[in-house]
Design a protein that fits this description.
heterodimer; A: 563 residues; mainly alpha; two-stranded antiparallel ribbon; 23 helices; 74% helix; globular; B: 345 residues; alpha+beta; Rossmann fold; OB fold (Dihydrolipoamide Acetyltransferase, E2P); 5-stranded antiparallel sheet; 33% strand
Chain lengths: 563, 345
């Protein structure tokens, strides 16, 4: 009897110790494994059939003009998108959190939609909208005012920046809106009563107080836009303008040189990691509390008539350009049997949807694959992330802050770089060309999003809730099952949906790893983009519907989008 | 009529009404403060005192009324005048201090001078001068986040005084400090006010703070003035049951007490009740004598606090230093005629 209880306790103890460590080690393996593969490959050079250790790939990297051009282009895209989304995101957050603009509660939700949409689909929608001479805007203008209209050139770095800005504005918005809403109003009031006007207060008090959030958002937007593969691929790759991620793709494909590609990937990873660590250190230094708890909520600013009109205009233009117009263009293209730049309602048909959903084996398979990857990936990802969160919040360990920093690294590493490393890792194994390698790459790239969501909620659950269950005789397993998991359920669901959404639209992490039979929705859109725009538009809309369902479910969990 | 007030009136508030939806926070409030004077708006939370301060500062806009500060009309609903907060030239010490965490101590303090376009040398000199006065000279270069609550409070005070405002507003300025520090700051604030001679308006729920800092007190209840006058008078002479209860007196309906007629309520201080086990021989005509039973006794240092049940479900609290009664004892409670307050509402 005595011995029985003891061994039961012992096994419970073993689970309590080993399960969280399992989650952490899987996470570390998913990061270190491909990175090591990439690092080793970057140092190898085949002379005849003999591999030799060499720095030649790196030497080439720092002298090649193509790489320099790609780096500069990425820098331009990252900086441009960062600047525009900082201004736009902060303005939108300020408008809905601080002013009495009509419909502010609805706008608070609507502003988040682009965050869940796919930038790739956005880029495709915008091509249909403003492609030179053949975009909807051009053809409409030509019909109304005559003459062929060229319009703005969407196939340019400016076009890339435009799309990236629209889709990353919600990142800034999310980072800024919470401090804007919760900040002690006395900080701003104190400036006003001591002689500062409205704009002086914004400049000297509000913006500096928002600086930690702005800095985090700026870095994420910069790193993500500079590393995003989809948009430059859709807009500039065919015009010979390459950014770093499309250059990585080119190095793997035309002609294939995995050694040089790996060296480039390692370089990009190093820069990203350095930036992330610098930001962590910088933020740790200047983390101050702006929510005093003793103060009061910021006042709502009563806009004058002109102010209301300006605020509403900004809101509506943002929602039109990021969501309504591109989606409208996609719908018109998808409903047309043959897209000529003009929509003829008389010919409208659902044939494209029918073909893509039921008849064309490539797209049918791609939809099934994406759903399988999203559901399985989100489930496994949430399990691993849940265990990691338990380790990060509940387990006492001296390695905690190191593990925390390590597990957050994939957040900044471009998807295509990670998938390059996985390609190198798997190319000579049976894994290559399977859905499994896509699944592993997806989880490796995106589990930190889930870990952050779950960790935030777990930190808010007082350990005494579990301790009192233990004190009342529950084993660790019972406590997990009956106390912690039910309490944590909203965060687990939110994290699952978040991963589902990301996996449904993912392109960068898939592009180097798919094979015939393992195409995803985004890959199928890419493959069809040259000649079957009707199918592409239909596929894009099917993807958007899946994302929209995810977004609605996510709002129902009431989980905050960023931590 | 409006705006003239009494001849020496420096701050004039006249008929100020402020509503939040259906809730009337300020109900046609009028009062004035003389130049160099100190006034405390005292009352429980929700009585409108902080709203009044925010209306004075320009942080809230009243529905109607008139406010002038140092001869300048800052708000007049009849004429459509409503100056921005920055145009009113005030100093304010906020309850949460609102010391900006992204600035050093001296940067915080020189802010009012900086936005007034005063040269860097001059504003630095003036900020240092006032920091010396509040005893923070050696902390000038520190980040504001490295300061204790009491030190932050001094920074907020220095910032409110550095531009020599005509009127300084204090919103629960001392209530976030611990008891010992609060007492210390109260004395310092008093000395500072005597030295610099600014006109001060304190908003507080703490009677000790109000009595110690202000020469005149306005006790507020539900957006109106309940009692106002010199601090000593407001504290010593109670005319309303609200004031008596607020200052911690026992308040009993008069018809539940023997021989108390011609008034609605009777109030008396807890210290003024005398307890005895036999009929008190020192009783004089007009004294209130009432039998009761000790319910609880709690040790309060030099005295014991008793809860005593009288007839008709009335319970009173009494402070007594004799220490001779136990729960269950029957006692006679006597309050001298001169210590009884007759309260009419």
């Amino acid at each position: 009897m005595q011995a029985g209880t003891q061994s039961k306790e012992k096994s419970g103890w073993a689970w309590q110790k080993s399960l969280p460590l399992l989650g952490v080690s899987m996470g570390i393996l998913l990061i270190i494994g491909p990175f090591m593969a990439g690092l080793v490959r970057s140092l190898l050079l085949w002379v005849a059939d003999d591999p030799q250790v060499s720095l030649a790939n790196y030497a080439w990297l720092f002298t090649d003009r193509r790489i320099q051009t790609a780096a500069i282009n990425s820098l331009i895209c990252g900086t441009g998108a960062m600047s525009i989304s900082l201004v736009l995101g902060t303005s939108l957050a300020w408008i809905v959190s601080r002013t009495n603009v009509p419909g502010r509660e609805i706008f608070k939700t609507l502003n988040l939609i682009p965050f869940f949409f796919s930038p790739y689909v956005g880029a495709i929608g915008w091509i249909f909208l403003v492609a030179p001479y053949s975009g909807l805007m051009q053809t409409t203008t030509a019909t109304l005012f005559g003459g062929p209209v060229e319009g703005p050139n969407i196939y340019s770095l400016a076009g890339v920046i435009w799309i990236l800005s629209l889709f990353y504005t919600p990142y800034v918005y999310l980072f800024v809106i919470s401090p804007l809403q919760r900040m002690d109003a006395a900080f701003e009031d104190a400036a006003r009563v001591h002689g500062a006007g409205f704009w002086t207060t914004v400049r000297l008090i509000t913006l500096p107080l928002l600086q930690p959030g702005l800095l985090s958002a700026a870095l994420i937007v910069f790193v993500t836009s500079a590393g995003l593969f989809d948009v430059p691929l859709a807009l500039t790759a065919t015009k010979g303008i390459r950014t770093m991620p499309t250059e990585v793709f080119a190095l793997v494909r035309y002609p294939s040189d995995l050694g040089r590609a790996a060296a480039f990937g390692i370089f990009i990873t190093a820069v990203t990691v350095a930036l992330t660590l610098w930001q962590r250190a910088h933020l740790a230094k200047r983390r101050y509390e702006i929510v005093s708890g003793k103060g009061y909520k910021p006042r709502v600013i009563e806009l004058r008539r002109s102010g209301k009109i300006i605020a509403l205009t900004i809101e509506i233009i943002f929602l039109l350009t990021s969501v309504v117009l591109p989606v409208l263009a996609l719908i018109l293209v998808a409903l047309s049997p043959l897209w000529t730049g003009k929509f003829n309602p008389a010919n409208a048909t659902l044939a494209n949807f029918n073909y893509v959903l039921f008849e064309y084996s490539l797209t049918r398979q791609a939809i099934m694959n994406s759903l399988f990857l999203a559901v399985t990936g989100a489930t496994i990802g949430v399990m691993i992330s849940g265990l990691q969160s338990y380790y990060l919040v509940r387990v006492r360990s001296v390695f905690k802050s190191f593990v925390d920093a390590l597990l957050a690294l994939p957040l900044g590493i471009p998807g295509i770089v990670l998938s390059l490393f996985f390609l190198i890792f798997a190319i000579r194994t049976p894994l290559y060309g399977t859905l499994a390698i896509l699944l592993i790459a997806y989880i490796a790239r995106f589990f930190p999003f889930a870990t952050r969501t779950i960790t935030a909620m777990l930190s808010a659950i007082h350990p005494e809730l579990e301790e009192s269950a233990r004190a009342n005789g529950a084993s660790w397993g019972q406590t997990m099952r009956m106390i912690l998991l039910p309490l944590l359920r909203p965060a687990l669901i939110a994290a699952w949906i978040m991963l589902f959404i990301i996996f449904i639209r993912e392109l960068g992490a898939s592009i180097l790893l798919y094979a015939s039979g393992t195409e995803t929705i985004s890959i199928a859109m890419l493959l069809l983009s040259e000649n079957s725009v009707g199918y592409v538009a239909a596929l894009a809309l099917i993807q958007l519907v899946l994302l929209l369902i995810g977004f609605s479910l996510f709002r129902l969990t009431r989980a905050p989008v960023v931590q | 009529m409006q705006g003239q007030g009494q001849p020496e009136s420096f701050v004039t508030i006249s008929g100020v009404t402020k509503k939040f939806g259906d809730f009337t926070a300020l109900d046609a409030l009028s009062f004035s403060v003389r130049e160099g004077g100190t006034l405390a708006l005292l009352g429980p939370s929700g009585c409108g005192k902080t709203t009044m301060l925010r209306c004075l500062a320009g942080l809230e806009t009243p529905e109607s009324g008139f406010i002038s500060i140092a001869g300048k009309v800052v708000f007049d609903s009849a004429k459509g005048i409503n100056l921005n907060p920055e145009e009113r030239g005030l100093g304010v010490v906020f309850q949460s201090y609102a010391v900006w965490p992204h600035m050093s101590v001296v940067e915080n303090v020189e802010f009012p001078l900086r936005v007034r376009g005063i040269s860097k040398e001059e504003r630095r000199a003036r900020a240092m001068e006032i920091l010396e006065i509040v005893g923070l000279g050696q902390y000038a270069q520190r980040s504001a986040t490295q300061l204790s609550g009491g030190q932050q409070q001094r920074v907020a005070l220095a910032r409110a005084l550095v531009h020599k405002p005509a009127l300084v507003l204090f919103d629960e300025a001392l209530s976030n400090l611990d008891a010992a520090l609060r007492e210390h700051m109260r004395l310092e604030l008093k000395a500072l006010q005597d030295k610099l001679g600014f006109t001060a308006l304190y908003v507080t729920h703490d009677q000790g703070e109000a009595l110690g800092l202000a020469e005149t007190i306005i006790l507020m209840n539900a957006g109106r003035i309940d009692t106002s006058g010199l601090a000593r008078d407001v504290f010593m002479n109670h005319r309303t049951s609200f004031a008596a209860l607020f200052f911690g007196l026992n308040v009993i309906e008069a018809d539940k007490l023997p021989g108390m007629t011609g008034t609605k309520f009777i109030g008396f201080q807890r210290e003024h009740a005398h307890l005895s086990s036999v009929t008190d021989s020192a009783a004089q005509n007009g004294d209130l004598i009432v039998p009761g039973r000790i319910a609880t006794r709690s040790f309060q240092g030099l005295v014991d606090e008793y809860a005593i049940d009288l007839a008709e479900g009335v319970s009173i609290r009494v402070l007594d230093g004799q220490g001779q009664f136990s729960p269950g004892d029957q006692v006679h409670v006597r309050i001298k005629a001169g210590n009884l307050f007759r309260l009419n509402d």
